[in-house]
Write a structure and sequence with these properties.
two-stranded parallel sheet, 8 strands, 17% helix
């Protein structure tokens, strides 16, 4: 059985534009085949924004069992250096990564994340978006028909401050299926 060949589709979507009132325009989810060779270093895409709510805190605590007072007890946190509840780092990660799920590449698969850091706190009412930059392309020593693409993911708040950073590692099929120098 041969490998399924995908034909490239449209070029990567442009960063979100602002309408006359300054709001980000929303993009639809699209499928685009990008082979290892198609990824360009330093290419950037930016997601739409999403405002963090108290419901997000409650639902995430219920899903994870993380009911630490830092996230759930407003009175406890009034006495802290933050002055208010802070978002679960894992929730910010999950939402930030979820915001990137607008481009589906059928020849790329997530291998995991490295260098995850919670840089600044996120509060109820903050609006976050994610900036994804192609940071590296490298050969995969165990998979000659694929390469690794490193996406630097930065979750950014409404003040343009990076609140979370991580490197997303993708395994991506090579166009011809043969091992080549990255």
């Amino acid at each position: 059985m041969g490998r399924r060949q995908h034909q490239p589709t449209t070029p990567p979507p442009a960063p979100p534009r602002k309408d006359g009132e300054g709001r980000r325009k929303y993009r639809r989810m699209t499928e685009q085949t990008l082979y290892f060779e198609d990824y360009q270093l330093n290419h950037v895409r930016v997601t739409n924004g999403r405002t963090i709510t108290e419901t997000d805190f409650v639902v995430h605590a219920g899903h994870t069992g993380d009911f630490f007072p830092h996230h759930m007890d407003a009175e406890f946190m009034k006495r802290s250096a933050f002055g208010q509840r802070i978002a679960h780092g894992t929730m910010v990660f999950a939402i930030g990564v979820g915001l990137t799920a607008t481009l589906i590449n059928p020849v790329a698969f997530s291998y995991g994340y490295d260098k995850l850091r919670f840089i600044r706190p996120v509060f109820i009412g903050d609006t976050i978006h994610t900036r994804v930059t192609i940071a590296a392309r490298e050969a995969d020593p165990r998979r000659p028909t694929q390469g690794r693409v490193i996406e630097r993911c930065e979750v950014i708040n409404q003040k343009d401050e990076v609140v979370l950073a991580a490197d997303h590692i993708l395994l991506v099929d090579r166009r011809d299926g043969a091992a080549q120098i990255a």
